Amino acid sequence: CPSNKGGIIWYNQCLLYISTIKEKIPIKTNYKNIFSMHNPNNVRGDAKLFAMRAMDFLSELILKVEKTTKYRLIFYSAGEKKLGKNKLYAMVQCLDLRIDCKRCLAWSITKLFKNDNIKQGARVLGTDCNVRYELYPFLRS
Prior knowledge:
Its main location: secreted. It is found in: Secreted. Belongs to the cysteine-rich repeat secretory protein family. The chain is an alpha+beta fold. It has helices spanning 47-63, 101-112, and strands at 6-10, 15-19, 34-38, 66-67, 74-83, 86-95, 122-126, 129-134. The strands form two sheets. It has a six-stranded antiparallel beta sheet, with helices on one face. Strands 1-2 form a two-stranded antiparallel ribbon. The radius of gyration is 15 Å and the shape is globular. The N and C termini lie far apart (33 Å).
């Protein structure tokens, strides 16, 4: 990565972050370079109740976030929860180099349901953290 460049690739289960930019650690969270992707299917039934339960579940996952590797670079939590007739699958993750991982994750969760855009699945991807939920399993056990 010549000339202070970097890159990030998001996979279903992890992210790859490479940078040659010299920054002081811990790094301030970047709330500008994010984007959202939504499942095209709308939620059936009470969408606002679904959104509230999904946000609660994602918030529970944030409380369980732990360092996942011996190198202590990634915070991660995933799980599944029964919501009526459906199961909700979700994960949250962020880089340890950031000042406040959990705040980044909480902020990202609010972006999932922005403008009452409530879908069967969605993700918010950023350089510092990302969150995802779906009504189908997307992670390997």
